[in-house]
Amino acid sequence: MSRARRSLAGIPLRAALPFAAAVGALALLPLVLDPYALNLVTLALVMIAGALAWNWMGGFAGQVSFGHAAMFGIGGFVAARLLLATPLPAPLAWLAGGLAAGIFALGAHPTLRLRGPYFSIATIGLGEAARLVFTYWERFTGGASGLSLPIVAGGKEALYSWALALAAAAVAASWGIRRSRFGLQLLAIKADVEAAADVGVSATLHQDLVFALSGAVVGIAGGLYASYFSFIEPNDLFGFDRSISFVLMCVIGGVGTVLGPVLGAIVFVILHQLLLASYPQLYLGLYGLLLVLIILFEPLGISGLALRVARRLGRGGPPPAPLVTSAAGPASPPGAGGGGRGLAP
Amino acid sequence: MARLLDLAISAVLLAGLYATMAYGLGLVYGVLRVVNLAHGGVIMAGAYLGWVLHGRLRLDPYLSIPLVLVATYAFGALLYRGLVRHLPRGAAGGPASLLLLFGVWLVLRNAAYLLFTGDDQAIRTSYSTHAVPFLGTWVSVNRLAVLGIALVIPVALHLLLHRTYLGKAIRAAAQNAESCTLVGVDVERVYTVTFGLGTALAGLAGVLSATLFAFNPASGAGELLKSFVVVVLGGLGSVVGTAVAALILATVEVFAILVLPSYLTAAVGFVMLVIVLVVRPGGLFGQRVLG
Prior knowledge:
The structure holds 2 protein chains of 2 kinds.
Chain A: E1 7-8, E2 11-12, H1 13-32, H2 35-60, H3 69-85, H4 90-107, H5 116-136, H6 138-141, E3 147-148, H7 155-179, H8 181-191, H9 193-198, H10 203-229, E4 231-232, H11 234-237, H12 240-253, H13 260-278, H14 283-297, H15 301-313
Antiparallel strand pairs in A: 1-2, 3-4
Chain B: H1 2-32, H2 39-57, H3 65-82, H4 94-116, E1 131-134, E2 137-140, H5 141-163, H6 165-175, H7 177-182, H8 187-212, H9 221-234, H10 239-259, H11 268-279
Antiparallel strand pairs in B: 1-2
Helix pairs in contact in B: 1-5, 1-8, 1-9, 1-10, 2-4, 2-8, 2-9, 3-8, 5-6, 6-8, 9-10, 9-11
């Protein structure tokens, strides 16, 4: 490419500036928002981190996990136990929770020999097994009556800042992974495992790495979630609904894109709040319906819609925003070729 | 010793149910290369259907089987016609069909919550507690009936696939869909029928399991996992393989009660899956499911 790009430490300004502006604006939000709204935004930030981490596995490597609640729960309960038993500062406890979740994900190594639907079904088993074990392991999780956590120094405002930092780090990491050699290797595995192996990309090794990384970040999110709500119980953190929520956030926003899971998490948190308030008996079915409709009509979710609109507005105009990159990789620009309806190339 | 015999007998009886659960999943995957993630949901729906027919119309659960088969067949055929047909299918199935069928499962679950609440239900008949003596122990009549039906299914399936034109078309479509089209087989119709059959078998498994176990709208995840273990372990296109795999799973589960606390037995299926994948990823018989 001959066009010179202004950049900051290798990051094009076009991407860095909006990102910095968004983080700056969010950092000022506690000054203007009421506690209820701030509560929602904090939850959304934690979920953004979780959704992005899920997307590394489900979107980049193409391995759809229905069991990420296991890592969320392990992160949450390990952090909670540490906070209850030691004077460790909360952020270190969350990191430890993330570490435990990452190690647990590594322990799930045998399931990573599987591809596609086999992997997905195995993760349903993984998640359900974790839920059962931790629900009945009362000495660790408090069983169905759950655990109450100590108040974190700095209160909800401090937790908000940490959630923002975590979400920002997850966005930056997503962007970095997508642009890196590692990210390309993941996309290669998703496109064709055997062809990737032929050029020296080991599916098992890379999936191990990305699953551990994804699990660790989801675990940290679980720890933050636990501190924020200061009460946790296994059926919430390890629940099947929790696993589904990560899938939904990414599908709503756009699986395999960088910004999609961010949008999806925001929409999901708002939607969930509204649905729980007005249709508590219907939300599961509405999520199912949403999944069906998105997969049938716009497999890239909101990102796909946005690209469509952008293309229509500026026919052959400027390329789409740099942060929204297609999962299909450089070979096919975002949303190119209306022929492919599926998520997989 | 008597206890071991008891356990062995219950393993055999349970294996019949597991095999019945697995046939539908294996059939659909073998022919369409789609893993029906809604399988567990249809098993749950079949259970409720049998329960409603028994509760409202006083219909014996075993007599309601034809009705359940017809209803779930229609549901499966519609599901294929309306949704699955439009999705990309490939060697790996692709996440699209997976996510879509997962969505269908969520809808089924929610519908069951709305219609029947989240309470545990079971089909209780006048003979639910009856048992007959067998080798010095007692065997529940219900379990025997389930095993009997479970033995009929593979025979019927085998006859259908190997003795009829439709069966020939199904097997041909599984091998090479393009060639099928070339010789004048309506592949889309074959797919519709196959998906309907697979779904109907899931519905049947649902009624059968409802006569033995309690169920609620959230049921299905365990059933899906068990069906999947049986399909992977037994391989595709092998009736014997499925039966043996179901027997292995049931045996491990039943004997796990001896050494594990009861709440952990639900995790046995998952552990089995992992072990199978590590030790024998190709399955025991028939065509490999993986790779």
